[in-house]
Structures are given as C-alpha cells and as structure tokens.
Amino acid sequence: MDSQEFYARMDFEAFGEILGRQNIVNATIQAEERFDGMQHSTTNREFTINYSDDSLTGRIDDRATATAYLIFATTKDSRKSPDKHFKMGGPYHFEFDRIYDPETDEGNAWNARGWRISKMKLRLVWTENEEIDKFRVFTKGKAETLR
C-alpha cells in the first residue's frame, strides 16, 4: 500500500478499524448493498481549523477536526416489511489534513488541493430494533461476510 492509499483511517469502534481508501470503499459497498433503504443523518456539526505558519522553515501546517452526531436507519426490504428496521446512533470524530502539491503549491494555502479526511471514528452509543450482531459489518479491518 503506498502512502496515499494508507492515508485514510476509518474506525467504527464496535466494527473495527479499516486502513486505506480503497479498503474503506470496498467495505462500505459490501456493508450497504444488502440494505434496501438507508438514511444517514448527521447533526450538531462543529469544525475547528488549526493553522500554523512557520516563517523560518516556510512550513504550513493545516489541520482540522470536526465532531457530529450520526443517526442511521435502515431496512432490509422496505417493500415487504418497512416496519422491520434497524437504527443506531453515536458521535463521529473526524480529522482532516489540507493537501498540497509540493512541486506547484509551494506551501501556499491559496493553492492547496483541498481538505481530506485522514481519520474518521464513530462511537456507537445506541441501537434500536435489531441486535447489533445481526448488522455487524466490519471486523478487524475487513468487511466480514454479511448475513
């Protein structure tokens, strides 16, 4: 895995940690394809941007953090049994890095390539209507076979 691929880290606490953008994409696709209907809602978002400019070295350090609260609801088959659903919720914590191209940006914040999520963590606080093990999606860094 190269440094760009290893850059991202997702931790859904009860489900385990997944490293690398493509691993996160693959696990998410596998987790979500079994549900007929899903709703993700994040509320109470709060962002903090930390900026430091070291004029002696010319190094700019841009980082940001964010918190939000997730409410997730899903059904396995909304046409046959919309009343059978699963809900869960809890706080998210995000860390972001500002991305620069060292060959062209020269550390100039105005030329930055944008912000990237470097870490995302969800702490599961509550569930409703189904046992969490029936909906377990991630195990020890990989998507498990879904039931």
Automatic annotation (TrEMBL):
Descriptive protein name: SnoaL-like domain-containing protein
SnoaL-like domain span: 8-121
InterPro entries assigned: NTF2-like_dom_sf, SnoaL-like
Organism of this sequence: Fusarium pseudocircinatum
Entry-linked SUPFAM superfamilies: NTF2-like
A Pfam family assignment: SnoaL_4
